[in-house]
Design brief:
The protein is mainly β and 420 residues long. It is built from one helix and 39 strands. Helices cover 4% and strands 48% of the residues. The strands form ten sheets. The chain has a four-stranded antiparallel sheet, with no helix packed on it. A four-stranded antiparallel sheet has the order 6-5-39-38, with no helix packed on it. Strands 7-8-9-10 form a four-stranded antiparallel sheet, with no helix packed on it. Strand 32 (342-346) and strand 33 (352-358) form a beta hairpin. The longest helix has 17 residues, at 43-59.
């Protein structure tokens, strides 16, 4: 079944958890941040986002893949290492995703398949266009349509069994409720959104102008250019009333909403618990706005005021004053912060627990964080992993690496393509 707009397979410019999008005719048309807040862009704006994403990618150690470059061009082979730094799956794949639910997508030859944590191929590589990571037992896979008119897409389970072949033009990820947003009906320019089950059947009929994935039991939906929320039974529990541009998913019982050109937070009853007061969402790390705020993580939300980052709690109280040039979200109890030109880590009380000493830093994951002690644009950048005491845990011997997920981190080695 041809499909022209789908959620893609971790096309996130090396930031596996920061960016996703939908592809239409080869162009990224809906960029989303980690809260699935859509930023609809044209081709020209997309180039801008690509440049910023590439910068962010290099800042934390990811580098753009150059596998199809000309002779003499460096390109990567990917594998995986464990938390001791041992390469448990040797670098041999042209592309590789992070492990999710025990499986990782890899590219073997010209096709995508899936391996388990031992490196065994458990779903044979047969998807020639791409494949997505598993979420709640399902993964979206894409193949060139036999007539050459588009893409065939469907959802597979962990055995590789094709569970559904959707007849809709757009879809998102399956949530723990077993539902995913999808489109059917309406016009080509203005399709209607509903929600499908794992067999591809609409259990919430297409009736919304837009919709996003379920989180915390609710999904954002749009009617009349206003946003509200629907539950898994299809009941609109928070009537559409919020502005369209930055209404987000629920995280820890709170959702960021826009009202009157300002952003605040509501609870799951729709009650405004933090009055709209923030001006902008920053779409990428390192981009500063005067007064913005993000979703809640581990009870705190990052906000920015006059170009400096701080954190607020669920009552709206500032618990960590805005004084950092840059800051990450809390993960494993720590958040990275930038002081001057160096990065360190604070705890949720605002105490500096790892002093600023790194040229770049990432979130803690599985007890480890990826850092760099050289400028990220330098070809000789040295990346390593530290533990929560700031002690060196893994000295990098590879050209590329990712955060740990399911106990493994992706690694990459560079080779030069031989001349002809």
């Amino acid at each position: 079944m041809p499909i022209d707009k789908v959620c893609p397979p971790d096309y996130r410019f090396g930031l596996e958890n920061d960016l996703s999008g939908k592809i239409e005719s080869g162009c990224l048309v809906n960029v989303m941040n980690s809260q699935n807040n859509k930023i609809v862009v044209g081709v020209g704006v997309f180039v801008f986002f690509l440049c910023v994403a590439a910068y962010s990618s290099m800042r934390i150690g990811e580098q753009l893949r150059l596998a199809d470059g000309p002779s003499g061009t460096p390109f990567y082979y990917y594998g995986y290492m464990d938390k001791t730094g041992k390469p448990v799956i040797p670098p041999k794949y042209l592309e590789a995703g992070e492990f999710s639910e025990g499986l990782a997508r890899v590219k073997i030859g010209n096709h995508y398949g899936y391996i388990d944590k031992s490196g065994k191929v458990v779903i044979q590589p047969k998807y020639d266009y791409s494949a997505c990571s598993f979420h709640n037992g399902m993964a979206l896979v894409l193949m060139s349509e036999s007539r050459g008119e588009g893409l065939d897409a469907g959802f597979i389970d962990r055995t590789g069994k094709l569970l559904s072949k959707p007849s809709f033009s757009s879809t998102g990820a399956f949530s723990k409720e077993g539902l995913a947003p999808a489109t059917a009906g309406g016009s080509e320019e203005s399709p209607l959104y509903g929600f499908i089950d794992k067999q591809g059947n609409f259990v919430i009929k297409p009736q919304f102008e837009d919709a996003s994935d379920f989180a915390d039991g609710l999904a954002p939906i749009s009617v009349g250019k206003k946003w509200g929320y629907v539950d898994a039974a299809g009941t609109v529990v928070i009537p559409p009333q919020f502005e369209a541009s930055e209404t987000g998913q629920f995280s820890e019982g709170m959702a960021k909403i826009e009202k009157g050109d300002k952003y605040g937070y509501i609870d799951k009853t729709g009650k405004i618990v933090i009055e709209p007061q923030f001006d902008h969402e920053r779409p990428f790390e390192g981009m500063m706005f005067d007064h913005s705020a993000d979703s809640f993580h581990e009870g705190l939300a990052r906000f920015e005021k006059k170009g400096l980052c701080g954190f607020l709690d669920k009552t709206g109280k500032t618990v960590i004053d805005p004084k950092y040039v840059d800051a990450g979200e809390f993960a494993d109890g720590f958040a990275y912060v930038r002081v001057g030109n160096k990065y360190g880590y604070i705890d949720k009380s605002g105490n500096m627990v790892i002093s600023p000493q790194f040229d770049s830093a990432g979130d803690f994951s599985d007890g480890l964080a990826r850092v760099s002690r050289r400028a990220p644009f330098s070809p000789s950048s040295t990346y390593e992993y530290i533990d929560k005491t700031g002690k060196l845990a893994i000295k990098m011997e590879y050209s590329d690496c990712s955060d740990f997920s399911d106990g493994l981190a992706r690694i990459g080695v560079v080779e030069l393509k031989a001349g002809k």
